[in-house]
């Protein structure tokens, strides 16, 4: 295993140590909980707290999106495992200024369970936690069962819009509604070309045969809807766009934001090659692209592959998406 | 080969197509040369033009650093090959406002040759091109032969400081001096864990045996100074820091910027694990870290590995480094 690790069981611990050392100007480790990252200036007086949480191994998600006009605190789980209820609770406590906290997280069993528990625990301490559950992954359930779908890279748009709204001084309900609207406007799909390996396991926990690809794959290798022969990037990009747009049902004249994220080990040039086909397919439907994001925004360790997220925009979503942020995930 | 490509011989062409579609709000393709990326607002009246150029396969370098307060134009080469003299020339022409152009590029034979030729061609058209040649890669030549060293990720700091200086309205000579000072203040080292593959070749053009690492490896797989058994991240990070700092000869009390870049297929969490050891080693020498950048800033296709760049800072370098930029490489 050709990796920069120490003890494979301590990957998260070591990642967090290096993370807070790198970005001490933006974030800090909670003094109460070594699995909670907190924005340096949190809690902000009079502001709704915005938190998320999820398993590690998706860096820069989730912790890299902590910062100005974005997330105030992040609960950090072990690799591909939900953070504990206590970590979600401590994240909320770390950024609660009295106006309540919104937890914007992904639809996974462990996260659902632990967030629910955290809400109860927080209520006992007089902290109100509202939630939005991301379910943008089109292939993870049928259109009429959207509540069963997983949350993937659309979460970044949810955090951006929710975080920007909170920074404007909106109420808890307003922030929740905005984040809900943001994720409701997102559809995503993943295509996997090669699996990832948990360092402590040492071998992939699923397989993708050479010259094939898995369409609809999840962030943890959850099976997709089909295994196909690996096609050209133009064909793959078109297929990804069609899956997302067909589910989205956007009308001609719609405006969208596009996010193409590598899954960890796919070089950036290939993501741009995909984007050529994706943006052409979107344009062919008479849909306008407001902004395109291409890079490793939400990964899965060293998985080879990419995700596409398309978010439908109205004036408010566009305005919130365009708010400048300062966070470790995108530093220059 | 599990990749998102169309014709493997058209990777650069297809990357550029997807790149300009993604970032049309920041960049455009030159109308005169399909291998030149130009900042949307270039040329800026009264501003020195700032250009670079280099082989493709290092995305987001070089083209991703085109934008506000950064590069005005970039000459794009084929994979791991220098851009042509004409492309360097056309990049210069695209951003020349009459105050001259500075070309900030890396020390490779092809680039040196083509930039020299571009300077002559530009002179005939009345455009002055000044140059700074990056040579921050410590292991590529001995300390007393720094002019033989290759340029690697230190180029990003050179672009940032040079670009910010030019945006302030400095003269050609002032911009050149600033960029020269920036790269003179940088030292870098690379460690490779697994090789990369040119899509048109289909197999790696060099090898790194499992359970070993190549210390001092170049961005194109140029041999390092030694092959060692793969150590823990703590040991590798310490070794990288020592190589860079020993060559740097910084005194206690010095202030630095740190850039840890993945080489393409190394997950972000591992870069943070490396940073834990790197930042500790820097601190142990009584050196203060002003800012740390961790991510895929300068890659080599799908190579597994990382580079460390340490830049010594004075007040001016710090100020220029902190200037906000807007470019495709770091969009959120």
Automatic annotation (TrEMBL), chains A, B:
SUPFAM superfamilies (alphabetical): DAK1/DegV-like
GO cellular component: cytosol
Transmembrane segments: none
GO MF annotations in UniProt: glycerone kinase activity
Keywords, alphabetical: Kinase, Transferase
Domain of life according to the entry: Bacteria
The DhaK domain, residue ranges: 7-330
Biological process, per Gene Ontology: glycerol catabolic process
UniProt name for this protein: Dihydroxyacetone kinase
Organism: Rhodobium orientis
């Amino acid at each position: 295993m050709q990796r920069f690790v120490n003890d494979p069981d301590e990957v998260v611990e070591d990642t967090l140590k290096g993370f807070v050392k790198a970005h001490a100007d933006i974030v800090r480790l909670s003094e109460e909980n070594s699995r909670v990252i907190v924005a340096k200036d949190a809690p902000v007086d009079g502001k709704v707290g915005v938190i998320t949480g999820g398993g590690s191994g998706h860096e820069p998600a989730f912790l890299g999106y902590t910062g100005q006009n974005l997330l105030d605190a992040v609960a950090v789980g072990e690799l591909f495992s939900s953070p504990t209820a206590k970590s979600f609770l401590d994240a909320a406590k770390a950024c609660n200024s009295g106006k309540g906290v919104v937890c914007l997280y992904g639809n996974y069993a462990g996260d659902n369970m632990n967030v629910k528990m955290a809400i109860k625990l927080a209520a006992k301490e007089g902290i109100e936690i509202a939630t939005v559950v991301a379910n943008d992954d089109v292939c993870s359930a049928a259109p009429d069962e959207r509540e069963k779908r997983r949350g993937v890279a659309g979460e970044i748009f949810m955090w951006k819009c929710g975080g920007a709204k909170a920074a404007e001084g909106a109420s808890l309900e307003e922030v929740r509604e905005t984040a809900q609207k943001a994720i409701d406007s997102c559809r995503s799909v993943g295509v996997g070309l090669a699996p990832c390996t948990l360092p402590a396991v040492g071998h992939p926990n699923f397989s993708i045969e050479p010259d094939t690809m898995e369409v609809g794959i999840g962030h943890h290798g959850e099976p997709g809807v089909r295994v196909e022969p690996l096609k050209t990037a133009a064909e793959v990009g078109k297929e990804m766009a069609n899956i997302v747009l067909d589910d989205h049902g956007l009308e001609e004249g719609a405006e969208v934001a596009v996010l193409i994220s590598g899954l960890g080990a796919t070089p950036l040039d290939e993501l741009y090659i995909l984007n050529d086909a994706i943006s052409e397919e979107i344009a062919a439907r008479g849909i306008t692209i407001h902004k395109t994001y291409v890079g490793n925004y939400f990964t899965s360790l060293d998985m080879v592959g990419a995700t596409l997220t398309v978010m439908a925009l109205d004036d408010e979503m566009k305005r919130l998406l365009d708010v400048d942020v300062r966070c470790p995930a995108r530093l220059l």
